[in-house]
Amino acid sequence: MAEKDQSYVVEMLNITKVFPGIVANDNITLQLRRGEIHALLGENGAGKSTLMSVLFGLYQPEEGEIRMDGKRVEIRDPNDANALHIGMVHQHFKLVECFTVLDNIILGVEPNKLGFLQKKEARKRVLELSERYALKVDPDALVEDITVGMQQRTEILKMLYRDNEILIFDEPTAVLTPQEIHELMQIMKNLAAEGKSILFITHKLNEIMEVSDRCSVLRKGRYIGTVDIADTSKEELSRMMVGRDVKFAVDKSPAQPGETVLQIQGLTVPSKAHHNNAVKNVSFSVRRGEIVCLAGIDGNGQSEFVHALTGLEKASAGKILLCGQDVTHSTIRQRGRAGMGHIPEDRHKHGLVLDFPLEDNLVLQRYMEPPFQKGGFIQREPIRAYARELIEKFDIRSGQGPVTKARSMSGGNQQKAIIAREIDLNRELLIAVQPTRGLDVGAIEYIHSQIVRQRDLGKAVLLVSLELDEVMNLSDRILVMYEGEIVGELDPKETTVEELGLYMAGAKRSRKEGAAS
Amino acid sequence: MKKQRTLWNDGSKTVAASLLSILMGVIFGGILLVLVALFLKMPLASAWEGFRIVLAGIFNTGRNYDAGSVLTFGFNPRLMGDMLFRSTPLIMTGLSVALAYKTGLFNIGAPGQYLMGTAASIMVALAIDTSVVPAALVWLLAFLAAVAAGALWGCIPGLFKAYLNVNEVITSIMTNWIAANLVTLAFDGSPFINLVDYGKTGFTLKTSTNGVATAKLGMDALFGGSSANAGFLVALVLAIVSYVVISKTTFGYELRCCGSSKSAAKYAGMNEKRSIVLSMAIAGGLAAAGAALYYLQGDVEFSWHTSMSLPATGFNGIPVALLASCNPIGCVFSGMFMAYLNISGNQLSTFTAYNEYIADVIVAVIVYLSAFTLFFKGLMDGRRKAAPIHHQPGAAPPPAEPAREEEKQS
Question: What is the pTM of this model?
Answer without folding.
Answer: 0.76
